[in-house]
Amino acid sequence: MLEIEGLTARYGGITALDRVDLRVEEGEIVCLLGSNGAGKSTLLGCITASVPAWTAGSVTLTGQELLGRPTEAIVRAGIVLVPEGRQLFGELTVSENLVMGAHLRPRSANLAPDLAGVYALFPRLRERRRQLAATLSGGEQQMVAIGRAMMAQPRLMLLDEPSLGLAPVLMREIFRMIQEINLRGVTILLVEQNARQALAISTRAYVLEKGRIVTTGHASQLAHDHRVVAAYLGGPDPHAPPTPITQGGAR
């Protein structure tokens, strides 16, 4: 589905990505791990043309080259980014924010079924649909950000740190919802600092260090790789292990 080959990205004289190869097959959840500054957000930005970096290499969606195309064209092709920090319109209501996610769809499009689908996925948003986004909790704002992306009817959703700053209960709820979205037929590329939870719901994983892919493999294998455990999992989990809906997501 998504094929990245030899992707290089530079900001001035700084190389943020160095000949990155990565693929995401249809129906997968693939997670991208790495420390702060490794280039994870830059990678998502290169896919969606939302970063001002010089780029080289190839990024294709089902064989269609994306590099050099505007963000609007990439969204229309079926890729949507849920950015770090949510980036909601705080002065708009929940429902108004959700509708903004469909702004590139035809004006004649019937949004009611899509809104109903988002509210079914996040019942809390239905209750708060007339509430200003700025007054929501962090977890509720993340639900709106994901729901807004769903309104674009994506084939591939890119998630950048969806659990950042959330309490453990809300974090687990967000991960369950990511799995549910995947089960509904949306392929997922997940950037996430919570490596343990990310690996638990993913099919495959990549590790990015200093702009280069250094490790890749099945998520369950990397969860037991001593290098990954030492660098990103912090040793044995002192809490109960996460319980994914379906190991590896939809196929």
Textual characterization of the structure:
By secondary structure, this protein is α/β, with parallel strands linked by helices. Helices cover 34% and strands 25% of the residues. It contains ten helices and ten strands. The strands form two sheets. The chain has a six-stranded mixed beta sheet, sandwiched between helices. Strands 2-1-4-5 form a four-stranded antiparallel beta sheet, covered by helices on one side. A hairpin with a 2-residue loop joins strand 4 and strand 5. Helix 3 packs parallel to helix 6. It is globular. The chain starts with a strand and ends in an 18-residue tail after the last helix. The C terminus is likely disordered.
Give the helices and strands, then pairings.
Blueprint: E1 2-11, E2 14-24, E3 29-33, H1 40-48, E4 54-61, E5 64-65, H2 71-77, E6 79-82, H3 94-100, H4 112-121, H5 123-127, H6 138-150, E7 156-160, H7 168-183, E8 187-191, H8 195-201, E9 204-209, E10 212-218, H9 219-222, H10 226-233
Parallel strand pairs: 3-8, 3-9, 6-7, 7-8
Antiparallel strand pairs: 1-2, 1-4, 4-5, 9-10
